[in-house]
């Protein structure tokens, strides 16, 4: 076994292991990622690798705790941006995921703003297995009908259900069933949300490949887009999780901005 240096950070409890391989390429196999991701071991929602700089951006590679690679992680990208900003002594960082360029800016003590780009609404873009109205999706799960679901891709696929009694839904039971529904060929993230008023929403999230998490940045973005599209909220909204809130703006140019806190940077050693 070899010991490698890593960092642990989180955004509102959504936690990550970050490994910097800009200078030395370190490979961790899928079975090892699953082992490390187990809460009985180190435990994390995602493990993120920082790759060699390309032009003006820093590519990242993201894996969920189930070992599957994903294209987006909003809170994770904010944590990486903060880590790089400290390392490079700069306030602005450009992060490159598999499918997007994300512009990050340090806006305060442990506060990071991230430009997430534009949402995608097409059935093939989300993607969905058939062409339907993505703003009014009905699913039958466990003989229970979930209606008026809103599907959108904000770097990864999401479905959002708005329900005043959102806490009554046991996401540990229905989350994986919705995640793996035939409608979603790449699976999906699942959010149940309650609109408190035009500027505030509270949510619970089941993350694709990670399960029930304390927070999810892309889910906050997707929920803000869905709520504005349904005329439930304004363009700027606070999305509340158990450990705090993210500020989301879906501006007139249809770009999404996410602002919120990140934790301190904690160094650790991992045996692989």
**Separation of the first and last Cα atoms:** 5 Å
- The rough form would be described as globular
Helices and strands: which structural class? alpha+beta
Number of helices: 4
Low-confidence stretches: none
Number of domains as seen in the coordinates: 2
Helical percentage: 10-25%
Report on the biggest sheet: 18 strands, mixed
Compressed to H and E, one letter per element, the order equals EEHEEEHEEEEEEHEEEHEEEE
Beta strand count: 18
Q: Do you know the CATH architecture of the largest domain? A: Roll
CATH topology tier name of the largest domain: Diaminopimelate Epimerase, Chain A, domain 1
Strand content: 35-45%
Mean pLDDT: 97
CATH superfamily of the largest domain: Diaminopimelate Epimerase, Chain A, domain 1
Rg on CA atoms, Å = 18 Å
Briefly summarize what is shown.
The chain is α+β, with helices and mostly antiparallel strands. Helices cover 17% and strands 43% of the residues. The protein has four helices and 18 strands.
Notes on the structure:
The protein has 272 residues and is α+β, with helices and mostly antiparallel strands. It has helices at 30-37, 74-88, 171-179, 217-229; strands spanning 3-11, 14-20, 46-50, 58-64, 69-70, 92-96, 101-108, 111-117, 137-141, 144-153, 157-162, 189-197, 200-207, 211-213, 236-241, 244-250, 256-261, 266-271. It folds into two domains: 3-117 and 261-271, Roll (Diaminopimelate Epimerase, Chain A, domain 1); 137-254, Diaminopimelate Epimerase, Chain A, domain 1, CATH 3.10.310.10. The protein has an 18-stranded mixed beta sheet that branches. The chain is globular, with a radius of gyration of 18 Å.
